[in-house]
Amino acid sequence: MKFTRTLVSLAALVAVGFSASAWSQTKTIYVGMNGGPMEKAYTSQVLPDFEKANNVKVVVVPGTSSDVLAKLLANRNSPQMHVVFLDDGVMARAVNMGVCEKLDDSPVLKELYPFARMKGDVGAGVQLGMTGIGYNTKLFADKGWAPPTSWLDFANPKYKGKVVFQSASSSTFGLHGFLAINRLMGGSETNVEPGFTKWASTVGPNVVEYIPNSAKLSEMIQTGEAGLFPLTPTAVGDLKDKGLPVAYANPKEGAVLLLVDLCVVKNNPDPQLAQKLAQFLLSAPAQSKAAAAGKQIPTNQNATMPPDMQKSLGNLDQLVKKVTVVDWDVINERRAQWDSRWNRQIEQ
């Protein structure tokens, strides 16, 4: 009996020893990012390269940008995530709340489009987006309509009842669309009066429905309800992959820049490894794989895109010269007031 207990104890010690050895050899690092196509692209094609090269396990914590930021704030004294991806508007809030660490100086930062580097390198764009015009190609063909070319097409009476607009109070796409149209009406981020006062006589009559986000678009495109809507090339690509008849049109006035930024979380458990992961994710090889796996448009100028993406987007270097860059600090300062007014005045 005593001999048996000794063997059992020995076996337990050996097991603990192997477990401790395995634990010491493989670290785990956590990344917060959007779920769905983005998570699938990174977990299947991008992150495995970093895992192999560094003998580390990378675990994605999926959620919207707002969800990820909420988790950061809830655990800001002992954060569980090492690196986070946030939409640029949410990232501006995260930086102001002090949850991001300055990126280490690295040659990869110089490879990014200049607008992708945040002030003070406290974060950087990892995916380039631009909110332009998505449209239903089957509906347009059936009606004999030429593809849209301008933000002001949303106010064209011929599209009455065929415009779907995401809520500017809950969607970046909707907010971008509103700000772009407001700008063409003489406004700016510091003056949204033209957009609000003229909406009811311009875009408003064409809108069949305001939706809180883009989740309902698939259904509305299939039924022919949605003809025209603010969207990014990547989101349009995701819809096309589902077999939906959609295309992206770049407005002649320029699309609105939409970045997915990354930052290294302040006070994270392994700052050195987190910085290393951030540099890897910003690199040309990583972004080239993200483009091939999930149509993620690179912010690294040395990255490549598959031929179908290049054909769909055209010359990316030329496109980014025309994008409109919004001031998120100004927007976030006024956002609550705008949201209240949008809900009360536009979607009443």
Polypeptide structure, described:
The structure is a single chain. This protein is of the alpha/beta class and 348 residues long. The protein folds into two domains: 2-128 and 258-315, 3-Layer(aba) Sandwich (D-Maltodextrin-Binding Protein, domain 2), CATH 3.40.190.10; 129-257 and 325-346, Periplasmic binding protein-like II (D-Maltodextrin-Binding Protein, domain 2), CATH 3.40.190. The protein is built from 14 helices and ten strands. The protein has helices at residues 2-25, 37-54, 65-74, 88-96, 137-143, 172-184, 193-198, 217-222, 233-241, 271-282, 284-294, 307-313, 316-322, 328-346, and strands at residues 27-33, 56-62, 83-87, 100-101, 124-136, 163-166, 207-211, 228-231, 246-249, 256-265. Strands 1, 2, 3, 4, 5, 8, 9 and 10 form an eight-stranded mixed sheet that branches. It has a two-stranded parallel ribbon with strand order 6-7. The protein is globular and about 65 Å long. The N and C termini lie far apart (79 Å). Residues 1-24 have low confidence and may be disordered. This is Spermidine/putrescine transport system substrate-binding protein. InterPro entries: SBP (IPR006059). Residues 1-24 form the signal peptide.
